[in-house]
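Please decode residue identities from the backbone states below.
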């Protein structure tokens, strides 16, 4: 009998039925004994344009029912060597962003009392700041792989200092990140000033604009990131709007000219070897995702992220 939790097989129970958890894994109340815990953060009160990401975790879980446990293309078999389960949703305060960020940090601090890699299902990108605060308390300053259309380094938005567009400025200011081990991939779109991206590059952030990646494989970039970060504890945050809207229209702040799903998969697969201590998939907005394809794509990206975590067995 396998000692690790396994997703419910589609050959045992039809995929349109069964538990509404990520990949139909067991749902548990504690991270004790887990290697990986999936955490839903149903929040969109940190957004500045289109809302709806509060429904992201539910839709990501629903679409993940299609994913089978073995990564045929890479040989990754995460459920053969990692104990995985769904930790359910964090009970945020839907009327208060500040309170919600505090709740997220406290919840993660409790989760991180255990030896577990938390993988967040978002939710808007403001959720990543309290997660990083909790992660840094345990692991110290972090390396960061940040795949996104936006650098999220604004100082304020409507006078607020903690929103989905200010996350990585706050994290930099608070000493949570190791600046020269921060990689921001897929940046593009219009800005307010010429310094929208260049200021963070001045801090030491490594930035790769989407236009510089058009029509190119990203395997070399992945290996460059691994060599740069080395053994530093690393957080991996993936904003679905890094993808071109033709692949992922269901998001709050879409920008044309983004990455393809093939590039996303190739990049993630070549990040194998990073000391990833946590990650998230954010900004899936089901109201703008009429076919479910954005959430389906997001769920598969999360599976790709799971497949490169430390300790994953390859068949």
């Amino acid at each position: 009998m396998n000692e690790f939790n396994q997703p419910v097989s589609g050959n045992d129970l039809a995929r349109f039925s069964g538990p509404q958890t990520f990949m139909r894994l067991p749902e548990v109340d504690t991270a004790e004994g887990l290697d990986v815990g999936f955490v839903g953060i149903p929040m969109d009160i940190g957004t500045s344009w289109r809302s709806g990401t509060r429904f992201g975790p539910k839709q990501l879980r629903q679409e993940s029912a299609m994913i089978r446990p073995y990564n045929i293309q890479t040989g990754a078999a995460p459920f053969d060597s990692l104990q995985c389960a769904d930790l359910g949703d964090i009970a945020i305060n839907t009327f208060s962003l500040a309170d919600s960020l505090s709740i997220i940090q406290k919840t993660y601090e409790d989760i991180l009392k255990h030896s577990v890699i938390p993988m967040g299902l978002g939710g808007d990108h403001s959720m990543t700041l309290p997660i990083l605060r909790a992660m840094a308390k345990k692991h110290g300053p972090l390396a960061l792989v940040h795949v996104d259309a936006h650098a999220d380094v604004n100082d304020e938005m409507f006078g607020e200092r903690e929103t989905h567009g200010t996350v990585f400025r706050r994290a930099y200011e608070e000493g949570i990140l190791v600046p020269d081990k921060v990689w921001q991939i897929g940046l593009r779109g219009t800005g307010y000033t010429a310094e929208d991206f260049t200021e963070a590059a001045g801090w030491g952030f490594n930035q790769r604009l989407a236009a510089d990646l058009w029509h190119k494989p990203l395997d070399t970039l992945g290996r460059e990131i691994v060599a740069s970060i080395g053994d530093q504890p690393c957080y991996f945050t993936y904003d679905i709007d890094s993808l071109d809207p033709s692949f992922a229209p269901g998001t709050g702040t879409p920008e044309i000219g983004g990455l393809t799903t093939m590039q996303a998969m190739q990049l993630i697969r070549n990040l194998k070897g990073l000391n990833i201590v946590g990650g998230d998939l954010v900004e899936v907005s089901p109201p703008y995702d009429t076919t479910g394809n954005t959430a389906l794509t997001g769920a598969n990206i999360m599976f790709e992220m799971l497949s490169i975590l430390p300790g994953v067995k390859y068949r």
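Observation: Residues 97-111 form the longest helix (15 residues).
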